[in-house]
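Let us practice reading a record.
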Amino acid sequence: MSTSSRSPNASELSSSSDLPDIPNPPVAATDGVLSPPYRALTIGIVTLVLLIAFEAMAVNTAMPVAVSELHGLAFYAWGFSGFMTASMFATVVAGELCDRIGPVLPFVAAVGAFVAGLVIAGAAPTMLVFVLGRMVQGLGGGAVVVTMYVIVGRAYPSALRPRVFSAISSAWVLPSIVGPVIAGTVTEHTTWRLVFLGLAPLAVGLVFLVLPRLRGLPAVDAEPPAPRRGRKRRALAAAAGIGLLQYAGQERQWWSLLLVAAGLAFLVLSLPRLLPPGTLRFARGLPSVVGLRGLFSGAFFGAQAFIPLMLIELRGMSATVAGLVLTVGSLGWSTGSWWQGRRGLRMTRARLIGVGAVFVTSGLALVLLAVVPVIPQWTAALGCVLAGLGMGLATASLSVLLLEYSPTEEHGASGAAAQMSDSLGNVALVGLAGVIFATLHSQVAPALVYAPIYAVMIAVAGAGIVLSRRAHRPG
């Protein structure tokens, strides 16, 4: 990244501050992500993430009503897996385009696709059109995330990037709290269509807020990487593989095993050429950074998917209270992300990732204890807070290292790899948890259903403690 001047504590924000970077103006000690040079861009990016997060949270509430009105129960799962499949394909394509032509046009196109998907889904006369709209949303949503990685790498000095990622993480908190409530109210008192159509004008307005700043992004001196043959074909195969795994996890029928086998075959054939070499064996540096993203995402969301059900079925909580337990986990995530972006932080990024892994593992262990009837119910809430705190520390730090370890002209490819790792870990471990649940639910006592799920996730998060040491660059 750049040879630009850095703030006095910049070397403490990363373990690789000697890497070249894009030329940036010196960062004064008082500069922040809302200082005049960055204010419009920061507000635009964070607000756009907030809209995407709101849509992600709200769609779960609106989907059952939409499916009922459109008489499309048979296609219910495709409303989710179609989004995921399209998102993963767009992730790879957008990353390659950003590295070749810069992030501006891909960003505008991504937001345009997201808005078009909202309109198609919101106005859909049939379930098939609705699924099509969800897939177009996925194309836009997946591409937006990757282009934002590239924009952060090019627009912000290294010293400010931890705070940018902190702000982006925090943008998920409010939608996780109010998104389902607002979507439920809108759906009940007006129409589910407004959950989609109401966001479209806001997203368009944000493009005009961000665009002037994007036009001033510094150019990259290095030659863009040559297009890799077969990359789009492999991206499509990987996206299909992840989509099949997600669909199989939602259906949980005997024939889902065939979908799992097909999905795994697609991934085995495509993933090694889409991720940095050595990712699947956690080679030091960038491969481990990308691999750890999937590890943490899978462990956290694999456990979180079954926490509300466990609290309702096993501990007798209401659905509202069980949902609030997940909310406090989101607040923990925001707190951890904020803490890693503080000025004067004296831990290396790799050490922060290790500390985050300890918190995630400890938090999930408390959730596991909550299946025991004599353990207080609030133990699960405390576990969610600790696990969320660890995710905030680890994932934001991994995002910082992702940019630090990648040549500027390859930020798009690295961002795409990180998103793919996130999705793979999420889908694989949530799906595995679903298989465990479906296998044991009618066979054993409830506590023995959930305990193995959390034990698997604790083991995966615990592996992150050991593997976090490999986030250091070789040499």
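A brief commentary: The CA atoms of residues 363 and 382 lie 7 Å apart.
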